[in-house]
Amino acid sequence: MNRPVVRVLAIVSACHPIPCLVVSLFAGMFGYGSGLPLDRCLWIFLAVLCHQFSVGFSNDWLDFEKDLAAKRIDKPPVNGLVKPSLLKALAITSAFIAIALSWGLGLGATSLMILMLIVGWGYNLGMKSNWSSVVPYAIGFGAVPVFVGMAAPEPFLVPAWTSLVAALLGVSAHFANVLPDMIADKLNGVNALPHILGQRVSALVIACSALLATVIVVTQSTNLNSGLAITGLALVIPLVLLASILSLKQKPPRIVFPLLMLTALVNVVLLMFGAERI
Question: How many domains does the chain have?
Answer without folding.
Answer: 1
